[in-house]
Design brief:
With 228 residues, the protein is mainly alpha-helical. The chain is built from eight helices and two strands, in the order ααααββαααα. Helix 4 runs antiparallel to helix 5 and helix 6 crosses helix 8.
């Protein structure tokens, strides 16, 4: 019980830190500065730093020189290219604060819904989504996350624009699903690097990658869709 309370307290502190960062970004936007773009790129830079540290630690554990060179090349080219695309997408989408806010709301609610509905049926073997990568992820959680993310998109449209926007249904479904597979991708990379968490900058939430892994596929695809 005490450990549960400590964990809950840490998550609350982490949530407060994130809220303060969001408020700072909104304040900068109010004064005509691209606060959301700064925030988005800062997050990606934080993700890059965590991945860099993780790769360094993974390479340090390797004994064979040939394997070290291969790992260094693979991680530099693949992860580096992905991060460059993500940073460019974050800057582009960040230029549209309402779009970025909507995406953050959908991703957050999909994450919460996935956790809540996943807990309802625990992690029975037949219910697990991708056991080797993330044993706690379940099909129930995925469906629940999509439902919550889609409802969040619809409600966001009602509050922001005062009308029901049918297009937000498929946007909510798509973003929720993409964010969940971003989460799975981050878990896969984490296992490859032999990490428990990417960092602890956000108490109770982990690092930038732990908190914002839903961006991995969402931002690049949304940026491409907005361009065309």
């Amino acid at each position: 019980m005490i450990n549960l309370l400590k964990k809950s307290y840490s998550r609350i502190i982490g949530a407060i830190v994130l809220l303060l960062v969001f408020i700072l970004a909104a304040t900068l936007e109010y004064f005509g500065l691209p606060g959301v773009q700064y925030f988005a790129v800062l997050v990606v830079l934080g993700m890059a730093l965590e991945l860099y540290i993780g790769v360094r630690r993974r390479i340090a554990r390797e004994k064979k020189e040939s394997k070290i060179s291969q790992l260094r090349f693979n991680y530099t080219t693949q992860i580096g290219a992905g991060l460059m695309m993500l940073a460019a997408s974050a800057w582009f989408v960040g230029a549209f604060p309402m779009v970025m806010l909507m995406l953050l709301v959908i991703i957050a609610m999909a994450d919460i819904g996935g956790w809540f509905f996943g807990m309802l049926l625990k992690t029975e073997k037949d219910n697990r989504l991708w056991e080797k990568i993330s044993p706690k992820k379940t099909w129930t959680g995925q469906i629940g996350g999509i439902i919550c993310g889609t409802l969040a998109a619809i409600i966001f449209g009602l509050f922001a624009y005062g009308i029901f926007i049918p297009e937000l249904i498929w946007i909510g479904i798509s973003v929720s699903l993409l964010s969940q597979y971003g989460d799975l991708t981050a878990s896969w990379i984490k296992r490859k690097l032999g990490l428990k968490d990417y960092g602890n900058i956000f108490p109770g939430h982990g690092g930038f990658m732990d908190r914002f892994d839903g961006w991995i596929f969402v931002l690049p695809i949304v940026a491409i869709w907005m361009m065309f």
